User: Fold these one by one.
Assistant:
Number 1:
Amino acid sequence: QVQLVESGGGLVQPGGSLRLTCTASGFTFSSYRLTWYRQAPGKERELVASIGSAADNTHYADSVKDRFTISRDNAKNPVYLQINTLKPEDTAVYLCNVVTYIQYWGKGTLVTVSS
């Protein structure tokens, strides 16, 4: 059974940093692209960053380039999202996604950026 569990969210002041973790199980982790999405209140879900199976071929949304870094550890099955220079508009639930035969989602972790 595929499971994706996000953690690391919280309340942070503008300009701060967080590292989000998605712990995956139930599939061959090293074989699939992993993707972080976010969904802000009242807005559509948007792709934030994705990373290829070999930790290569990363892709970022224009709105987070130079501030977010996605990485993975194929030996231990987490995928990380390092978020720097947080802005209030980064406030959202951040979700982990993988597509094997079907699409799987975690439940998300809430990031709130506020002073």
Number 2:
Amino acid sequence: QVQLVESGGGLVQPGGSLRLSCAASGFTFRSYTMGWYRQAPGKERELVARISSGGISSYADSVKGRFTISRDIAKSTLYLQMNSLKPDDTAVYYCGWIGTYYQGQGTQVTVSS
């Protein structure tokens, strides 16, 4: 069955960096568009980054220039490198198979001094 397992969240100070990972299994990872979502308390879940099967990436305006999505096809793993983190980036981050309802369980990212 499809499994998406995130890791790498935590507490970081403003201006710091974190790298999230998502281990995928149960489907042909390299053939599909994958993405990272986030949901802050009291807000709707939003798509912050996506990467197509051809390796083309796109970002929400709020993270453009600070976050980088990437993937390791051999490891079936999706990454999100987050730099220059701000308190507004605090949220639960989920990886997802775009176009389906498959998402991971989420990993908490807290940006605070």
Number 3:
Amino acid sequence: GVQLLESGGGLVQPGGSLRLSCAASGFTFSKIYMSWSRQAPGKDLEWVAGIEAGGDGIWYAKFVNGRFNIYRDNAKNMVYLDLSSQQVQDTDMYYCAEGNAGVRGPGTMVTVSS
């Protein structure tokens, strides 16, 4: 079955950067739209970014405001999310998913704090 595993989260200071990675298996990755979402405790899941199967179509949530970059490597079955100019309010568990609302991985925690 579909398996997704995120990594790369951690503690970063405001204004800092992180690279999140998601390893995918169990499906034809190169044919599937992938996305990143995030969720804070007690809050709803919030969509962050999506990327088409071939990598040509990319979309971001309005709050990203040019600070994040989603990309993928279909040869490695990987999708990435580069976070930059991070703000305290970016503190969340970040998930990659098949589609926008499909199977998600266990998530990787990003904490932005001084």
Number 4:
Amino acid sequence: QAQLVESGGDLVQPGGSLRLSCTASGLTFNTYNMNWYRQVPGNERELVAHITSNGYSTDYADSVKGRFTISRDNSKNKVDLQMNSLKPEDTAKYYCNARNYYFDIWGQGTQVTVSS
């Protein structure tokens, strides 16, 4: 059964950094585009970062451009999100998503809280 497990969420002060990781199992990882989404209660889930299946192309929400970096290691079935210069408005639950033509798979999420 396909599964995504996120880790790395924490409480961090404004201006700090965190690295989120998502490890996949039960799927052919290198056939999936990978995404990080985030959601605040009461709001819609927001796409934060995207990386293609081969890792050659990335895209970011305007709100995180220049601060966040998505990367993947297909040999380890892993995708990371490096988050720098964190702001209180980055506080949310972050979800890993794997998507291809046939399947759309979600992790359970990891909480990121940016507060002094």
